[in-house]
């Protein structure tokens, strides 16, 4: 694994200010982008919650991204803001095709960052992944480590067999208290990409991926594929590619 370079993409980050439970204000969002730049992250998919309790207006997202992008340039920060959204599984029936396409990662029309319902993963996720595939989309499953259960590894394996990929939270590897729970997923080859899932520069997780990638480089089978996890797969996802895991 090479060291941090300015071509990493954070696929899961609540960067847009004042829209959900993410960045509090513009200054907070700019500092989050500075954290990303220092980590070697060139671009962030701004992924506000698309779920009933946040009432995010999808039609407003392009303008909000443009405003933040202009503010970052003015602040001398080179981090790019890419389209996206974190779509709750129970919102799929409420969104039409163009709405879903507009919140695909990179707005490439393919990959949806899919948020499971609270609690252990169950048949609802199978149905959500299948529903997206029928409608012409692919699912990137968000933070499964927050949905622990005895059958988590087996259930994730079945979701991958259905065409989904798995995104885990980078900070869960760098935090010693949560790292042990991540190791079974890594050793089973069920981690395809990382995301910061950062919500603020002032509290909680930082916008950084490099330290977690360094840890993954020590765990088989991912140790042989960290370049794919850290660089190739995220680029393919935001470009709408048919991304297939090599492990």
Care to give the gist of this entry?
With 247 residues, this protein is an alpha/beta fold.
Provide a descriptive summary of the structure in words.
The protein has helices at residues 26-39, 61-74, 97-102, 123-134, 152-161, 171-174, 179-187, 210-216, 226-238; strands at 8-13, 41-46, 49-50, 80-82, 86-88, 111-115, 138-142, 165-169, 193-195. It has one domain (8-238): Metal-dependent hydrolases (TIM Barrel, Alpha-Beta Barrel). With 247 residues, it is an alpha/beta fold. The chain contains nine helices and nine strands. The strands form two sheets. Strands 3-5-6-7-8-9 form a six-stranded parallel sheet. Strands 1-2-4 form a three-stranded parallel sheet.
List the helices and strands and how they pair.
Layout (H helix, E strand, L loop, with lengths): L7 E6 L12 H14 L1 E6 L2 E2 L10 H14 L5 E3 L3 E3 L8 H6 L8 E5 L7 H12 L3 E5 L9 H10 L3 E5 L1 H4 L4 H9 L5 E3 L14 H7 L9 H13 L9
Parallel strand pairs: 1-2, 2-4, 3-5, 5-6, 6-7, 7-8, 8-9
């Amino acid at each position: 694994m090479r060291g941090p370079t300015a071509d990493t993409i954070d696929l899961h980050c609540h960067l847009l200010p004042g829209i959900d439970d993410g960045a509090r204000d513009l200054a907070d969002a700019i500092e989050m982008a500075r954290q990303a730049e220092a980590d070697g992250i060139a671009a962030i998919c701004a992924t506000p919650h698309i779920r009933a309790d946040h009432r995010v207006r999808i039609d407003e997202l392009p303008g909000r991204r443009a405003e933040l992008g202009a503010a970052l340039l003015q602040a001398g920060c080179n981090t790019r803001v890419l389209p996206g959204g974190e779509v709750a599984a129970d919102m799929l029936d409420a969104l039409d095709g163009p709405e879903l396409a507009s919140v695909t990662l990179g707005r490439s029309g393919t990959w949806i960052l899919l948020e499971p319902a609270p609690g252990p993963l169950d048949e609802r996720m199978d149905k959500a992944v299948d529903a997206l595939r029928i409608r012409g989309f692919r699912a990137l499953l968000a933070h499964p480590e927050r949905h622990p259960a005895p059958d988590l590894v087996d259930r994730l394996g079945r979701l991958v067999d259905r065409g989904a990929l798995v995104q885990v939270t980078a900070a869960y590897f760098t935090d010693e208290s949560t790292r042990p729970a991540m190791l079974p997923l890594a050793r089973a080859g069920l981690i395809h990409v990382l995301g910061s899932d950062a919500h603020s520069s002032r509290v909680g997780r930082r916008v950084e991926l490099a330290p977690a990638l360094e840890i993954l480089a020590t765990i088989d089978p991912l140790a042989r594929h960290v370049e794919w996890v850290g660089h190739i797969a995220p680029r393919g996802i935001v470009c709408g590619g048919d991304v297939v895991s090599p492990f």
